[in-house]
Queue: 2 jobs
Job 1
Amino acid sequence: MAMPWIAGFMMKAPVNKIIPFSNVDGPGNRCAIFFQSCPFACLYCHNPETIHMCHNCGACVATCPTKALHMEEEKVIWDPSLCVNCDTCIHRCAHHASPKIRDMSADELAAEVKKHRLFIRGVTLSGGECMNQAPFLEELVPKLKEMGLHILIDSNGFYEFSKAPYLLSLCDGVMLDVKAVDPIFHQQLCAHSNDTVLHNLDYLLEQGKLEEVRTVLLPHHEEQNKKTIAYVVKHIDNRCRYKLIAYRPYGVRAEGIQAFGNASLTKEQLKEYAQYAQELGCHSIHIV
Ligand code: SF4
Ligand code: SF4
């Protein structure tokens, strides 16, 4: 796990990217902050370069066409002013990492968000897995709330939210991934158990902090897809939104393509899954 670190008295966290205006990361127009590193390694991950921290092997440095990367004291240094975001370095990295990471303090991030304050309703804390940075978020979120922003955590559910009551009290809600309910399938899919995810589902419902549950529906896995939908619909009992997301091969690494192929679900298949959820009693379904 990549923990936030302290330089002097200032905690910093690794930021992969900031999207100033997003309308796909929660309700309304939002700024989305993507923190680097994730304890899962989902086969269908669209941004596998967010999984691990760079370990400064240097293999990507020479591939940069604009010399935006160099080594200094055995660390890879990225110069954003020279970078043209061609992602050649990311494609070269065999470790699911990125050299384009900024270690930022809560003040620096809040200042970045403030630039866009007039045009956004809220901020979504995402990743990677933003809960890898839970202590840092406790410092950041009050600064964002001071601006009157609606704050959502986007999480894969690996971190026990019952251990972060203060952070949870600061935030408006959590958008939780329930990738698979079957424990063996979840382990194969994400290289991690789903015990904590399912515990979090119940805990966040009890706390009134579950904004949305999301499940990616996979081609050729109808039984698993339906098993997860049935479990989620029963547990949420219409207390939050349920988003059903079609698997898309874009950005997925070779192992994922090998497992799930190059094609997405059809619109008809997605609608059939939504209808299945409705028949089980779910009234608030979004399909994307
Ligand atoms: S991003 Fe990957 S290839 Fe580049 S230095 Fe880091 S670990 Fe090595
Ligand atoms: S994304 Fe930026 S740092 Fe990476 S290879 Fe391209 S120009 Fe260089």
Job 2
Amino acid sequence: MEIDIKELTPSQIYKLMISVIVPRPIAWISTISKNGVYNVAPFSYFAGVSSEPPVVAISVGRKETRAKKDTWKNIEETGEFVINMVTMDTVEKMNITALPFEEDVDEFKEAGLTPIPSSVVKAPRVKESPVNIECRKFEIIEIGKMGLILGEILKVHVRDDILNEKGYVDTRKLEIVGRLGGADYCIITKENTFTLKRPDKR
Ligand SMILES: Cc1cc2nc3c(=O)[nH]c(=O)nc-3n(C[C@H](O)[C@H](O)[C@H](O)COP(=O)(O)O)c2cc1C
């Protein structure tokens, strides 16, 4: 079947994109508003886009009212955020933080999460997450109704037992969760990962 994008509604395009571009990592983003309210929400339009400088990209949409989602607003106003990785043991809490809470609601409290201080940004880290990435706003590019947020990585916190001697984080120890289409997810486990060495040059 060949699908002509021009014949689909935005909702159909969304369903198609999120079910064919898989698996997607989840940036569980914590921010603080300019009034000091803690916010946390998941975003799977997320990728690392440069290592030099170290930059990540996350695409954040708007609320039903057309206002920018709180994460976008907070990053625009404070210039800072933290990406926390989602593991199997926090997936239910992550799901609570995807609810459309009002901007004056502390979503750490709503989801039963523990905010802990970051090293260089004011936005808190999620204590329950084994990887926290402190970022500073690099640029926000508006693409239609979305805000493509580029963030420069300033600090990375990883749980001591997961960084191996080669400098890689051993994600097989963590059960990191990825998002598929609709309400489906996947987990990285020892059993469903494998190593593939590059072939020698021919
Ligand atoms: C796993 C998952 C991934 C999501 N990815 C995105 C995304 O990439 N972009 C987006 O705008 N919303 C995404 N959402 C929805 C937001 O998390 C949701 O709208 C949230 O309420 C935004 O919160 P905020 O207003 O506090 O920023 C996702 C939800 C879930 C559960």
